[in-house]
Fold these 3 entries.
Entry 1:
Amino acid sequence: MNAQFKRGIIELCVLSMLVEKDSYGYEIISELSKFIDVSENAIYPILRRLTKDQYFKTYLESSTEGAARKYYQMTEKGFLYYVELRNQWDEFIGGVYQVIHKGGKNNEELYRRFKERIK
Amino acid sequence: MKNFIEDLKKELSKRNIAPDAIDDIIKDHEDMIKEALEDGLNEEDLIKRFGTPEHIAETLASEEEIVEQNDSKEKEEVEKDQTFAYDLDQNEISIQIELTNEDIIVKSSEKAKLTVNIENADHLEDYVVEFHDHTLNITRKKQNKMFSFFTSKAKNTKVVIYVPKDTLIKSLIDKHTNGDLELKQLKTRHISLNLVNGDIEMNEIISEGLKFHIVNGDIELKDIKANTLYSSQVSGDLEISNSMIDGDLEVRTVSGDIELEEVTCDMFEVDSVSGDIDGKEFYPKMIRFKSISGDLNIKNKEKKEIKIIKKSTLSGGINIDL
């Protein structure tokens, strides 16, 4: 998959996580990597850029293990950005589904019609 | 862990990132990696989750660069508008548009030349505007078409086409994804529109045939004179007012509603899943109606005969009130 496209999706995932609750770097990274292969799209640079752009702010809070953790918290600006990106995503994926599901989802049926057509 | 951090430090320094920023980035990684090791991750797992030090540094460096570039661009005030003008040697033209996120306006004007204005474009050089064989073509270079909405955040680029009045548009074909389309005071033969999310607004349009395929956008038509009108939509609404369709008016909708006011047509053909159709001063001569749950309601003052040729519906109905 195109790296830039995937990066946009991962950015949306990071934003989605922080809409729900404040979180710290390692938690965000390990949570996301459960679902998505992020080896080629490092998450940290995304966190850093979104913080720099004031979509997130950070604060320190001590953890039970002792060392203080840096938490990321979404700002209002970040929330608006999330909504914009989310809408774009929904529109896009809606359009994609319109196109790819036009012939239905049944592969056998699609294959039968395909064979018929290229006969 | 030591290796990872040291590699990262090296990669960052190589790329001229500010020392303050490097300290910050290293500190963040030390904290995160400490937790990862407590979780029992080995060096290989680290790379899977965090990416390679080289890749992290590369991305961070390119981002610093992006920010600087944007700043200097703003200072230089990069040109965002461009005008194209063409002489016409006959008063018939065709227009073909294939774009993604732009808003498009086509209207008649007093100008003698066919004029295209592109306004507020982030990458003017990407737009291709050509006029030959009496056909105006507007496209955008396609390198990133599939996901351009993720990379180009500015959605407010406008393309305005001024058509000299008394020019007949033989065909107007527009395919685009997210932008809106506005047509005003045009004489046309065929209009064919394919949009996914954009809204359509049409005012004072004369046409032989109108054809729309829309997924989510709403359509608003006013003062239309056409021989036929065909509209297929999924969830967008359609509103037509003060219009005369000599021939067939055919609408297909999944969940979008349809509103008609002061409209006449010959055959009114409806295929609706759950969208309702409301007519007010709506005078078709004949109706063919097919729906699952959508209703057709007409409220007219004048008593004119409306023949119902065909009706098939599961739970919808037709009501004509006089």
Entry 2:
Amino acid sequence: MRRNGSESAPFEGPPRRILVIPLLLLLFSSSCESGPSNEVILYCSLDQIFSEKLIKAFEAETGIRVKAGYDTEAQKTTGLVNRLLGERNNPQCDVFWNNESVLTLHMKSEGILAPYVSPNATTIPSGFKDPDGYWTGLAARCRVLIYNTRKIKEADLPTSILDLTDPKWKGRFTVARPLAGTTRTHFAVLYDRLGKDAATKWFRDLKANVGKVAEGNARVMRMVASGDYEFGITDTDDANIAKQSGEPVDTLFLDQGEGQMGTLVIPNSVMLIKGGPNPENGQKLIDYILSVGVEEKLARSDSVQIPLHSDATAPANVVTLDSLRPMEVDFGRVAAIIEEATDILREIYLD
Amino acid sequence: MKRLDLATVEKKVSRRFSLGPLTFSVPEGEIVVLLGPSGCGKSTTLRLVSGLDRVSGGTISLGGQVVSGNGTHRDPRKRRVGMVFQSLALWPHMRAVAQLRFVLRGKGLARKEREGRIARSLDLVGLLDRKRAFPHQLSGGELQRLALARALVVDPEIVLLDEPLSAADRALRTRLLLEIRRIQRELRIPMIYVTHDQEEALALADRIVVMREGRIEQDGTPREVYEKPRSRFVASFLGASNVVQARAIGNGGFATPLGEVSCPEADGRQAAWLSIRPEAIEVSPEGVACDVISGTYRGDRWLLQVARQGERFQVFGTSPPEPGQRVGVKIVGGAHLLEDDASVEREGEE
Amino acid sequence: MSRRTRGIAVSGGVATLLFFALCLLPVVVMFVSTLFQDGGPSLEAYGKVLIQKRQWDLFLRTISVSLTAVLLSLLVGVPFAWLTTKSDLPLRRLFGSLYFIPLIVPPYMIVFAWDRILSERYPLGPWIKEAFGLKGALIAAFPLTSAAIFLFLSYFPLVILLTRSSLLQQDPSLEEAASLTSGEGRVQRGITLRLAVPGIFTGATFVFLFALSNYGVPNMAQANVYALEVFYQFKTAYDADAATATALPLVILSLVPLLVQRALQSGKRYSSPRTTNRPVRQVPLGRLKIPAFLFASLLILISVVVPLGMLLYLAGGIASYRGALDVEGLGAMPDLTSTLVFSALAASAAVLLGFFMAHLAARAGKLLSSSVDLVSILPFAFPAGVVGIGLVRLWNRPGAFSLVYTTSAILVIGLLCRFSPFGIRTVSAALSRVDPGFEEAARVSGAGWLRTTFSVTFRMALPGLACAWIVVFILSLGELGMSRLVAPPGVQTLPLRIFSLIHWQYDAFVAALCVILVGCALLPVLIFTLLTGRRLELR
């Protein structure tokens, strides 16, 4: 029956109601996430594929929900550090798991860390811990030369990182852009070691000589594995992935000879952020990360990180600290010059 | 100028509908109007003549030369056909002068001659001062004229017009009809004009070909078709008409519900279907009594629907109808025999 | 004001306000906040960045990559569109159904597939190197060219889509009239293709905007263009002002073709609506049939068959799929579900907003209608990175804002911001085809405003609305550039996950996840086509 002139009651109502639905859906989905507040916020610059499983195991063991910010590829550490610095007045993060150490020192000097000494840190050598307890090192990687076995033989390879500016290598190799990550650390260490002028010259010569400045160590590994370039400089975990997958690659540690500077060893570091939302859970997470079991898992994983705990056992394919010549580095000094070095690097390597 | 002949032209349009066989001619310098309801195949016929579609059977000849059928099909380009489409098909991105220029391209004309032809064509339709306008800037009437100019500028051997005035209002239509007629008379180009409007047909044509469901119902001059329709369909399509079944009463006279009427051509038949135009009957106190059903005002007079003996008739009257009114109707003119028994029988079955 | 007018005005107004707040405000805030340095208004931040020479090198590089992609798309797309709609090309219906697939596959996956195919493991790479006398890397050695080519391969279907749509809408009598006096070549050139110019230009504009905005391809090809620079400034250097200043030329560059396209589209010089139901006029190809067929086949082969085939091949058996999703394996299942949910939410919101906005625009006065129209297409000009930065700058504040900033809400808003214009446009087109007479009829018979709107208008426009939903859904599924900037800790989408894996050697898993993503995108398209028998349209 039609009711002339009158509106049909069941469908009355201000039209606004309909629009509230998507809003409600949004809020609903977001509230689904915040849930109970037994959580901890982690920023992690160790690649997700290595760290995620361990984090999930922590969640299963303790029931604490970990909201992890990873970020992909090349700029993770730098980006995350900058984000932590940017958030200093309103910290969003509890724990930072850094895949290197220089920026950790930088953050300590910026005052955004809170000290915490984990009971699991006792068997870590003191050289890899902060004396004031602001950070603890674990699971190290090394810088390494990765080469394509089909394109070049080991005997023909350069033996020092400084050789790379030799014209005979022109266009034949690749290096990651030294504006972030372990590559930046590596170049900053060289800057500290060689002095400003020699280092700047070396940076420029290298840029002119390199075949490709890659966006990250993993890409260096990819391009060498696929034969785009004969060799490249990357981290041991990246190189190992390629080896594990059966790619025609092998690795060589540079500067191992007598009198040479040795290869750079870069430990992970983990720290508590000052003023974070869940400090107790943060401490529990740090304890977990620093446990021997985690280091052993990292050693056994594709990332073949070198355990630092003296009581950790590592499988055969993991290089141990005594089997290679590590570089002597004062990370504190490097942390002090890293901004200066980065400015110079930015000028040369940012096109 | 050449003569156009269609001989038993057939075209299979769809599984259920096929056109033809059609046979008619367009003599030199004449306008033939294809008249019929929508879907009767008149536009299709036009497309066959233009060469846009191919025939399935029969032949189309221009000046004695076969252009369609018998294994040949001459491209539209080679037929020198000017066509005005129902939608006018004016290219929206071209100015008036550009439209004409486009159709003249590739004809090997010198620039001067080409521009001259364009100017003449536009002048002929009275659009010379609007030559730089785009279609969206032109009025309805101007668009029609531009379409016509475009069709004429190629110096065609035949001009085809597909219901070009269907979108125009009455006043515009009358004006344009006269324009078209004037131009055609001036240029003496044979023309086929397709329409469903009998007024246009009667006003314009030298010959009318009435079509229905893909077949020709009647082919004749306007007077012939109007005054002597061969079938009920033609009779009703051209003007109002009264169709009655009449009994012979001898000497060419026949008895109808409205009285007696003379129809010499039907002499000899016992019974016949006759067509009596409303103009041949009038309201008169001396006529037979009929009940008035309704009436339509025509501006100058009324067309009344009256009933008698269960049949309805149409007659002109001068005063508006009133319900329950009775009028006297008297036959004053003649009747015409609807010869086409087949169509009449078809009507009878309906 | 009648109740109905009020209903339309209010709902449309609220929708427009929401649209403004969610989709436009972030970018406005972003640009405005950079204008204020140290508490006072200043152009310093902009000046500092824009003065650098390398900014202009960057600008030129970016434009040349995008324009090359556009040019290639036109060169290939227009002929293909013509062949599949207006010619008697064999298998043209098949070609016509397959060509849009590159749009569904996220571009960085196309790069991934080709990168693997061209590696030394398979013969194609070395063969190309030998044929062209190249040594060393293929993609890595020619980053800009590679980026242009892959952007072309990802987005050329946009040109085809819009050109086809344009060609199919033309009144065949226009061509017929021309064919009375001109050869087919001139007819096609002078009439058919000329009238399709607005559609072609729209397609080209879309390709340009997408190419400009895309992050995944330059990242994979290691091509240094704006998208990467903006990302670097914001995420690595954490310099929001520098990122914003860098983004400014980008946005201006995007607005220009957009406004030109709008003018073209509404011009009366091209409108030629169909008056008959006669089918599209077909042109016989004759001798050109074989080369045309080869061309079309080659295009489909290179853009669809090869990349998809490679992904399927790399994925291998069911083990990879299971491994990728399983908790024991990569554990990407939650990422997949999140992505599906976010995309569905964004699509629904876009359609709802679009419906009310378009309804308002359709029934309101000219001025209001064209303002709403203009406002709704503005987000087209915002590249993914810009949207991301804007969102973070707007929502990264203490208090209630963190409800959005730290949760997936900000991601969904970002998807809405990026893709709602597509939804709104498609909804507009669908609504414009609904005769207002139907609404009037419903009203006159006593139905209230809401009932009329939903039972009549909404229902009648439903296929078009479904189209819009599917388009926004598919685009959201593959979104990367904005997500990377905006996704808070604990929130990850499938594209982000794939992207983080792509450089490691987990090819089988990456390929499996890619295939799953493409499958999820194709599914609604298949359902739609099966249910309605129509093709997806984009206007």
Entry 3:
Amino acid sequence: MDSEGSQKIAAVAEPDALLAPGHTFESVTDKISAIVLSRPVTPGWVFGALIGFGLLMLLNLVVTLLMIKGVGIWGIRIPAAWGFAIVNFVWWIGIGHAGTLISAILLLLHQKWRTSINRFAEAMTIFAVMCAGMFPLLHMGRPWLFFYLMPYPNPMWMWPQFRSPLVWDVFAVSTYFTVSLLFWFVGLIPDLATLRDRAKNRAAKIIYGMLSMGWRGSAVHWSRYEMASLLLAGLATPLVLSVHTVVSFDFTIGIIPGWHTTIFPPYFVAGAIYSGFAMVLTLAIPIRKYYHLEDLVTMRHLDLMAKVMLATGLIVAYGYATEAFMSWYSADQYERYMLWNRIHGPYHILYFMLITCNIILPQSLWSKRVRQSIPLLFIVSLIVNMGMWLERFVIVVISLSRDFIPSSWAMYYPTKWDWATFLGTFGLFFFLFFLFIRFLPMISIVEVRSLVHETAEEKAHS
Amino acid sequence: MPQIFHRSTNLIARVTIFGGALIVAALGFALYEIAMSPWYTEQNVTRQQPVPFSHRHHAGELGIDCRYCHTSVEKSSFAGLPPTQTCMTCHSQIWTNSSMLEPVRASFRDDTSIAWTRVNALPDFVYFDHSIHVAKGIGCTTCHGQVAEMPLTYRAGTLYMSWCLDCHREPAKNIRPRSEVFDPFYEPPSRSNPILVDGKEYTDQMAMGRQLVKDYKVKNLQNLEDCATCHR
């Protein structure tokens, strides 16, 4: 980290640069690999990882209790049979979308600003999908029979119900997880080889060596690497759109008022990317500060991510407007009541909080001063995360708790175990993330080095 | 810098990748085979009974009708197990000193039931009715196998849902004329064994089956596959 070269590197990049000036191939490699290889374990990391581990153990406890007692420990009661589990599922899986968008779509669009944020955004995707995937399984009530969801030859001669969007979910989410994991791993291979070559410790050499699968950096390796990345990006691109589309079908196939707006799929996808970018910012801002990565993850990155949030946030706002319009225009008394119920019903505070968090406050991102202010950006990102969670709560719970027959209306209240499950997935997410920061290069060495080359060339030509 | 791995690692890596795929496939196959094996399904496995009752002797050699003992098969969901009195209609007169039959006589004397071991049992979440099957021309031997040739009774089918569905999806494969339902030696029509139904001679099961499905008004075939037909 303290190599001679780093003396000349500006600690903070200029606002519009993607990389601080003065970086060379070597300085980039030194800086990123040092975080994994030579940086001592700091109390800050231990503290964070322990909190994550503690919450993970809470998840362990809740899941055990759930297996013993069943889903009755949650607040789900008819008519609101979908509670926190589905809200959290949609929220977590939405968060994952930013990572795939950054690594796949921006790769195909040749956006260079993806290079220094794609690695940890992809890690975020994978961990978020793991958290998301757990909820539908736990929500089934008998999670140990999860394999009933897969079409496999069995003596019952039964297939899953292919007309059910819940089965589409299984395919959408498992494909998404597989492709994201492969994409992430393929991207890691050259960096793992770098770590293997630089590691001093024999165990580290062997582990990184096994993971790098014999990478020697030959021209053939590079050509295959490029081809594999391109193919996986091509596979992952439609997934950015399809996964949340399928998730929105979970709702639109149901007969509940408020779930039939035709804009649901694109509005869900935009919401997913919105919350995903908010989460990337929430993670990037503290990490970049703690590990002094301001020269790699520059203000320009944060600025661009804020702009993506602003754009997708506006699409989401348009989605809310369409929902309101459709419920009026449908002239259906239940649809119209649903809107009235959102604004005046027992959960109206949550609806107004949702509008505030997702539409009103993020408009501050129009101001360059807000986009350039790290504390404000961090606060906005947290607000959007919360707003997007509230959106799912509003969609799931407000519609379900008051459907067609007033005599069967009932309130939904989460129990302490609902909260514990939700917090527990945070434990899983953050514990995995802390391990990731410690044991894998959180920024792609290879891709940032290509950026060094390109920025140097641009300078030479100008 | 010395090499971390020996040359042979390349081979090991390749073997692990292909071997992994192979092991997963082999495991799946093995699990399926175990699930289908008599060890697990108890198909074709004879059960020990308190009295070594032989269907071969009673139903086969002596030609006693199934309904003589299983009296409720035409009226009820349950075919019925005979009370000891049914045994004693004959055995109060013949084989009265047989030691093999002592449990039967003891049961009669003490007015207690013989604790037979159940051979064919469906789970409680399956609604199954003997009477409707019999009424629509499904013979005893279709599900219970060649009972008239069993010295000790065993389960002839796996009792898996696939086994039920096999017929529910295509009842014409197994349906027979109502008059033949209780014939333990019934054989489906063939060239050497033509069967006469309503004045028409059939030499082919499928041709006869399709006609009988129509004649007996077997419910809309779609309904036979509905979950709620058996899981009520």
